[in-house]
Amino acid sequence: MKFTKTQAVAAAGAGAAALSAVLAFAAPAHAESAALTIGQLEAQGFDVRVDRVGSAPLEQCLVTGVRNPRERTRLVRFDGPGGRDRLVPVVVQRSITVSLDCSRR
User: Which keywords does UniProt give here (predicted)?
Assistant: First the structure.
């Protein structure tokens, strides 16, 4: 798979912007429902891992934290100017952990 320089730069920039957006989103996550928070992260392309305390249904859980955003990248060759090939990182997987308090009150 080969990328042009523009595609490679766009892919790298999009990955950095996405992580910044997630970290900004994570701060007020406790005000959101657990299902909504998880759904929004999945819509952003994350594989969401959940750790929870308690056994209440998801609808009754509170988000206590969103952490550990991780990106797994792969180096992909792209055609550079003047016939020079370069390797650029491309995101192939994104994961994040959502902590829930599902204890019955």
Answer: Signal
Q: How big is the chain by its Cα radius of gyration, in Å?
A: 18
* ∠ Cα 55 96 91 (to 5°): 155
Rounded Cα distance between 25 and 96, Å, is 12
pTM of the predicted structure, to 2 decimals: 0.62
In the chain, what are the domain boundaries? Answer: 3-101
Sign for the pseudo-dihedral over CA of 76, 78, 13, 7: negative
- Quick one: which H or E segment has residue 11? helix 5-26
Q: Please give the single-letter amino acid code of residue 33.
A: S
User: Which residue type sits at 15?
Assistant: G
Taking residues 62-81, report their average pLDDT: 91
